[in-house]
Amino acid sequence: MSELSRALADDLRGPLGLIVSFAQVLEADYATLSEEELRHYLHAISQRGSEMVGVIDDLLAVRDEPSREMTAEITSLDMAIVVDEALERLYYMIGDRDVDIALPETWPVALGHGPWIEEVWVNYLTNGIKYGGQPPRVELGAADQGDGTVRFWVCDNGPGLAPEEQVRLFAPGARREGEFEMGLTLARRIVEKLGGQVGVESEVGQGSLFYFTLPLAG
Prior knowledge:
The protein is 50% helix and 18% strand. By secondary structure, the chain is an alpha+beta fold. It folds into two domains: 3-67; 75-215, Heat Shock Protein 90 (2-Layer Sandwich), CATH 3.30.565. Helix 1 (3-29) packs antiparallel against helix 2, helix 2 packs across helix 7 and helix 5 runs antiparallel to helix 7. The longest helix is centred in the first third of the chain and has 30 residues, at 35-64. The protein starts with a helix and ends with a strand.
């Protein structure tokens, strides 16, 4: 079995198992469940299905990107809009896990391709939510670096990362707590294609800050 096939099997097993379990409950007890309980199970099935679609999309992007030319129109980004779109995609995950999201009042203007950067935010936010505290607290921010670039970040309240984990986190096939982190690999490829860099700053017990840079809009 290839590395990509193993990644797909590992990352789909959890949500698929929950979908089967919830469907079995509905099949067995449909007539006795309240309307609220029915909505709960249907929402859970929808959410887990969305997670599976996200896993497959990331896997296909990581598989296909090296063999194709990524091209896009580069424009000045209204990052508030891009982030809002990313948060909307994660609406149910944020609600289910009672995530506290902190956003800056304003954003520096950078150059990039909106749909690609939305994907970066989705993957960074998903990472912060999955590995954050209980409940997760995720802070987004940005700063002009003074060298013609803007640094954007997602900071979480999770357990933090040891130096050896940080080194390999964005590499293809990297794992965190036993799961493949394809989303971070995809984020790195996107940002580097746009002329930026990715990275992480973390200490064990102190949470993690994942960042990416983009050219500052002139």
